[in-house]
Amino acid sequence: MFDTRITLLADGFQFLEGPVWLSSAIAKNFLPEISGGALLFNDIPISRTHWWADGNVGLLREHTNEANGNTLDGSQQVLACEHKGRQVVRYGPDLKTHTVASHYRGLRLNSPNDLIVDRDGMVIFTDPPYGVTPEARELDYQGVYRVNPVSGKTDLLLDDFDKPNGLAVSPDYRTLYIADTERGHIRAFDLDVAGMPINGRTHCRVERPDGIRVDLAGQVYVAGMKGIEVFGLDGSALASLAMPERPANLAFGDPDGRTLFITARTSLYKVRTTTAGCEFGGMGQ
């Protein structure tokens, strides 16, 4: 499952999060100076988004309001959760941000953490309170939301999490996985024909789970206290990978989709996998 030779790509950061792979076709729009694909990732405390490509690291943008999770939308723009800005934003090659979601029913969001895009282009994100003080909170729960990118309407999908965090969808778009960091488990939900989560259940248990990814075989990769843990379709433990630092998030990348990039506190790592991420099978996250 893993080529267990973990490679350190870059270090000296403060707290890394939000890795997302840009194919060469997308990367050239954001980074015309490079020739291939690139990885974007955030250094939360200093509000910077960096890129890595071909062994080099560069700065893409600053003043990100402590951007956390990243993903891509159907128009090849970047979606980012602003940890401190308390909103989800979108930006293209001009790096100008546009608000996707900042309130629910007139109340300001807590601190959007991570996000995905479903098969219909809807933006699904988690909203724990990590980036907001208790007295500044306007919502008394930590929800999971879905935003219609056309109408801009934000709907609450789930509100029974202690600390909703990373999330991912299965290759067939039938199952949604969401980490609850406080409860120490990954929950799985069936998605109905309208893309709504139903039949929630515990898929697997992980100490302090954070970011999640799924490969083309439907196997779930989780960044947790012990490193990267992998679980099967039935929730059984399949493999684990100890890390030099505690990982926060992960993303499949490279042209074949078989490199797992890992943001782990102060450093960026990679490891090769035997199965590609489902972003690379025509069924993206």
- CATH class descriptor: Mainly Beta
Q: What radius of gyration results from the CA coordinates?
A: 17 Å
Mean pLDDT: 96
Secondary-structure element pattern, one letter each: EEHEEEEEEEEEEEEEEEEEEEEEEEE
Distance between the termini: 21 Å
Give the neighbour order of strands across the main sheet: 1-26-25-24
Taking the sheet with the most strands, its summary is: 4 strands, antiparallel
Q: Can you offer a commentary on this structure?
A:
The chain has a 4-stranded antiparallel β-sheet with strand order 1-26-25-24, with no helix packed on it. A 4-stranded antiparallel β-sheet has the order 2-3-4-5. It has a single domain, classed as Neuraminidase (6 Propeller), CATH 2.120.10. It has 1 helix and 26 strands. The protein is 2% helix and 49% strand. By secondary structure, it is an all-beta fold. Strand 8 and strand 9 (97-101) form a beta hairpin.
